[in-house]
Amino acid sequence: MLMNPVAGLVTLTLVLAIFLLIEAALETALYFQLRRAINAGWILFDAIVTLILAILIWSQWPSSALWFIGTIIGISLIFSGVSRVSVASAMRRRT
């Protein structure tokens, strides 16, 4: 990455797309474990958004690698945070 930062950024963007695909699969599995819990639909919604973001990275990959990382990670973190807070607050109210 130090010798060729653009190639490193392009590679890092591809790794991010793979990471988001794996995260979407794991969140889907988490949803099926918690589907009877209140607000568990937020986890499925987060999985769908994460999958869409991974597909966006994959489809636009080499051309948009310079600005995609910050934008996509920000969107993913916002949706993940909202879904986790929603499920945690529902679990807290339940106990």
Write down the secondary-structure element order: HHH
The N- and C-terminal alpha carbons lie at a distance of 49 Å
Shape: elongated
Number of strands: 0
Rg over CA atoms: 16 Å
Number of domains: 1
Report the helical percentage: over 70%
Profile the largest sheet.
none
| Poorly predicted segments | none
Structural class: mainly alpha
Nearest-integer average pLDDT: 84
- Approximately how much beta-strand content do the residues carry? under 5%
Number of helical elements: 3
Structure write-up:
The chain is an all-alpha fold. It has one domain (5-94). The chain is built from three helices and no strands. The protein has helices at residues 5-34, 41-59, 65-94. α1 packs parallel to α3 and α2 packs antiparallel against α3 (65-94). The longest helix has 30 residues, at 5-34. The relative contact order is 0.17.
Topology:
Blueprint: H1 5-34, H2 41-59, H3 65-94
Helix pairs in contact: 1-2, 1-3, 2-3
Describe the structure using short key phrases.
single chain; 95 residues; mainly alpha
Q: Brief overview, please?
A:
The chain has three helices and no strands.
